[in-house]
Fold this protein.
Amino acid sequence: MSRIIAGAAGGTPLVSVPGSLTRPTTDRVKEALFSRLDAFEVVADARVLDLYAGSGSLGVESASRGANTVDLVEFDAKASAVCQRNADLVNGVVGRKVVTVHRSRVESFLERAGAGTLWDLVFLDPPYPLDEPGLATVLALLQPFLAEGAVVVVERSARTPEPTWPEGMERFAERKYGETRLWFAEPVPTDSEAETESTEPAGQS
């Protein structure tokens, strides 16, 4: 059984999604992942987005560790119900509604995101049937909503290739844990943004 590893709700058992449609992140991988994220200092007070949330394990772990808001996005009815149960568990412990569950396809959720919406930490653990072009499409939809200094974590099978990063996002680290590979990416200025910065007049002293 999966559990929350650390923070306000540390040790709390999580509800799992029945069946084999989801691929839950193991506690070993989750512990290693959050150890790195803590080193990056991106969890506390963060606005977190957990896409293809499954049971919501990564999102609620973030909430337990001090994230400011967490959005769990899951389309499958059974998984989204489990997300809600785990969200209720953590929200109850921390004493406020940190975690919100959205039953939606990931693409539709990102297409509906309002102007000015920004996230500091994003998890993507897409199902096996999502191919590389499909993942590239989702990453491109996500890119405009990344805050400065944001971290994007993509969890995939160790046998899959590196994701195709859109303009404005690039990989800065990767780690392999058994059959799981984690890709870490961050927002970077696009060519047009860099050109705009280079042509802006210098300020007067």
